[in-house]
Amino acid sequence: MGRKSVQEEKRVRIMEALNQCLQEKSFDQTSIKDIARAAQVNHGLLHYYFKSKEDILINYIDFVIDHYKSMFAVLLAEKENKGLDEKQLLEWFFQAMGERITLNRRLSKVFIEIWEIAAYNPVVREKVRRAYREWMATVAGYLQRVVPDPAAARRIGTAVVAFLEGMSLFSILLDAQELELSEVLTGFQRRILQML
Amino acid sequence: MGRKSVQEEKRVRIMEALNQCLQEKSFDQTSIKDIARAAQVNHGLLHYYFKSKEDILINYIDFVIDHYKSMFAVLLAEKENKGLDEKQLLEWFFQAMGERITLNRRLSKVFIEIWEIAAYNPVVREKVRRAYREWMATVAGYLQRVVPDPAAARRIGTAVVAFLEGMSLFSILLDAQELELSEVLTGFQRRILQML
Amino acid sequence: MGRKSVQEEKRVRIMEALNQCLQEKSFDQTSIKDIARAAQVNHGLLHYYFKSKEDILINYIDFVIDHYKSMFAVLLAEKENKGLDEKQLLEWFFQAMGERITLNRRLSKVFIEIWEIAAYNPVVREKVRRAYREWMATVAGYLQRVVPDPAAARRIGTAVVAFLEGMSLFSILLDAQELELSEVLTGFQRRILQML
Amino acid sequence: MGRKSVQEEKRVRIMEALNQCLQEKSFDQTSIKDIARAAQVNHGLLHYYFKSKEDILINYIDFVIDHYKSMFAVLLAEKENKGLDEKQLLEWFFQAMGERITLNRRLSKVFIEIWEIAAYNPVVREKVRRAYREWMATVAGYLQRVVPDPAAARRIGTAVVAFLEGMSLFSILLDAQELELSEVLTGFQRRILQML
DNA sequence: CATGAATGAGTTTTCATTCAT
DNA sequence: GATGAATGAAAACTCATTCAT
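Predict the joint structure of the above. Result:
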């Protein structure tokens, strides 16, 4: 834990600062000084740790995807000790994914921002693409326990993830209460499972 | 059609220019001069027609929502002369909505941008919110033909729209070919209809 | 009263509009459109009647000086039918000048603006200079009735006018009530007259 | 005298640069780049030290008033070691004030500009008001040595200051030589003192 | 490593002026 | 004579980036 980790600790602090800033303003509207202020770090230092604002962004994308993957991993780890059958497992998995990730407002806000950035920035898009591919493969893997056809499982997985992302979007843009987003999530998953 | 329509014609040209610009760059990264260039008008003129860049944005949001509503209206108008029964009508409606709107890449790109803007800008958010409320009400209305419970119809409608928005997002961020988005759309809708 | 006077009438309207605008904003901060709006005239027309904003200004200076001279003339005309002796006449004259011109807030505001413009613009300065020279000559003329030495009368005249302009300034910048400007004016003039 | 004074030194340089610019052009017509050029600093730096052009102005007003007060203080400090009686002191005081401040052309030019700004800008007006109040109180204080009635002393003080400001104005707008401003100043003060 | 002063390119905005109708 | 759309120069301001200390 010498120099290296001090540096690393500071880089993480900067990433978390940006994460916080993105709750308020878009990346474009967030200045380097805003991030520095949130990180309680001199703004000149940001150029020591990262070579440009674009570089901060690129690193941030990895940071967010990693965080999100680890949330996912935590979720998957839990299932082990529950003694659930196939269907129950799937049900629990969907439920947990929806509630902890999809309806997590901080995460959703960041993701809307990342989608937009990815829509215009090919480097970011590639990173996002890879993350979704992984996520979808995992979901498809789970589905295959009850949907034997791999192609069908893949498609259903895609549809499920699309639905979840749509719900994530709505949790930010629309009135979650009025739309009963929680109930929609639950109901939708129940139906999907019945169908399988 | 004298003065008024000259002004209106130019305002529309500016809106279309912005629409075109948003295929390349985000709104923040699109300068007033970029829009002016695309509209082939002097940049000073944009301030003659709109009082600020923010004002251009607000008007553009309305412009997009109107366009999108009229696409929707066209779609609804077509169904009349088809002599379809309830279920067939619903099936055709979902299919058309998915293919013409959800998988329309130009429209999707613009919508991802609008989502992001709405996430940070309350005025835009309110406009977007109203548009989604309307859209969901329409979809729920159609569903009620086969789902008698209004609350259930509303929830299923929300889910369907969430799914479509997720697919719209994927059409831009991911590899549509690889994911077989068209097939996912079709398959998903078939299943939903079977279920009802 | 053919074309000519219609033009003249409109030019006057523009001058009065500027006069009104200067109650709110400095000349630099008053746009051509502001003036046009106040004159209820199309802004393009201002360039028909005057060749530039600078030209409007130059004409306005003349307009104000003329107005002010005519106020002065009215004041002088009144004295005739009063049957006052030399000293009384002078007293009445000072009193009237102070109250009707110096403490006229609209006029004072315009004059502060004109002073500033004259400080930087030689053309305007020359016009202002001539007006003051005339005014001072008139005042000196009156004083000569009780101060036989012409040079002394001239100097006292200069001092009196300086004092009046200072009071005019204070009527805008300071609290007229608190400073008892009216009383200062009266008292000062009484003392000057006693001294002569 | 480390960091702090480097900043302060540069801020002062900017203030002096503006002071110099105002000898040529009005504040409105002086651009930030003009000031930067005069201060021999990068124009972006002006926005580092001051948050807007308005902020530069506000600070400048304080800067000028402070300078002017310190000139005044120097003047007052001198009188001590002169062994003058009351009347002589007053005479010397008026003389010095008139010659060093009122007829100081650089200062007068700046003051005409400040008057105009104050006429339209309430924040500046308040600062100017306070400065005049102070100045008048000092003058009234001196007068009270020979004019026992405080109210009378105050009024005469106001009149004296009004006269001085009028002379200051004339020193810029009119021909000082032709008007014999120096003589007017001296003569006027002599008379005032005789009267008391 | 850390600081914050300095740079300069780029952006929005204003506005006098022109000119076709 | 009007009108108002169009132009383009110039302004204030922002900010990523650099760099001396």
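Chain D has ten helices and no strands.
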